[in-house]
Here is the input.
Amino acid sequence: MTKVKSARNKTIDTSLDDGYQYLERCITVNNPVNDIFSILDKTVLGDSLEVLKYLPRECVDLIVVDPPYNLTKKFNKNTFSRKSKLDYESYSRKWLAMVAPILKSNGSIYVCCDWETSIIIGNVLGDYFKIQNRITWQREKGRGAKANWKNGMEDIWFATKGDQYTFNLDAVKTRKKVIAPYRIKGKPKDWQETETGNYRDTCPSNFWDDITIPFWSMPENTAHPTQKSEKLIAKIILASSNENDIILDPFLGSGTTSVVAKKLKRRYLGIEMDKQYCLWAEQRLEMADTNAEIQGYVDGVFWERNSLAEQIAVKNSTEQKVEREASLPSEQTIFDFLEMK
Ligand SMILES: C[S@@+](CC[C@H](N)C(=O)[O-])C[C@H]1O[C@@H](n2cnc3c(N)ncnc32)[C@H](O)[C@@H]1O
Here is the structure.
């Protein structure tokens, strides 16, 4: 019996038969590429451990890596099998040695891990890059364990090629409700008083607790088993790249990095070995042509989790303000009016 999806279920699960036109947009790379621009804004269908060796040296500004963690996990037709620590280390060294020469001298790399994989990655990443930080993401959802703590976090390692690198602090501030509205001479100190409440745009820390994994009711959701949310990737891309910069994801999955890069006006290249996931990536890239929204990132600011009602209230109040201002005579009109008199 075929499953009937609820009307609110937005999960993208287009089959290979129904979405062959998306798959046709993907490319393969079997020979050295001299000019990275000749293959930009594409999804490469292939094995990264083969494709990466054909890419030019020092050509990308940012690399986002969400590799298979050291767990046994089914990725559609392929199963990644849990390895011994030493074998997982060799596997990680393999792709790290391949991406390192591709990154520009002022470029950055982010690597996602679960806590166990993080112990291995944290140990080897420094052999290829300068480690700048370890971000901990409280992912909220996790499967309960009978005799252990539920796994509710992931690490994201942030490293750079050198000491000079892009970091756009103002682009990744989080909008928080002010709990203690401190004033100096009656004026708000570092916070804004608005019609919908009091807010402060705060500097982001290396603890991210404002991002959920994608849910079935979100338009970005696909049937990929380990999809990252667009809000999470948006933080990385906004902090560590500028418009028109080139972003590479060698384990693209359902396409999140490429989609967010496109929405934020960056160039992108993603590599994924599974056809089904390549198809969903291309389908999402097409959807981004008509909808560049990133849930949780509105008007250049990251909002806290579960703040949709506030975001809508702020949007409505801003729209009403714009309408009110539009209906008022402009300074020039008043000036003309006084001149006439
Ligand atoms: C953890 S998932 C990435 C999920 C992705 N961040 C997203 O938001 O959908 C890892 C992906 O890497 C792919 N993969 C694993 N080994 C690969 C390889 N050697 N070359 C290309 N893709 C690979 C898997 O098929 C899987 O989709």
DSSP finds nine helices and 17 strands in the chain. Confidence is low (pLDDT under 50) at residues 330-341. The longest strand covers residues 103-113.
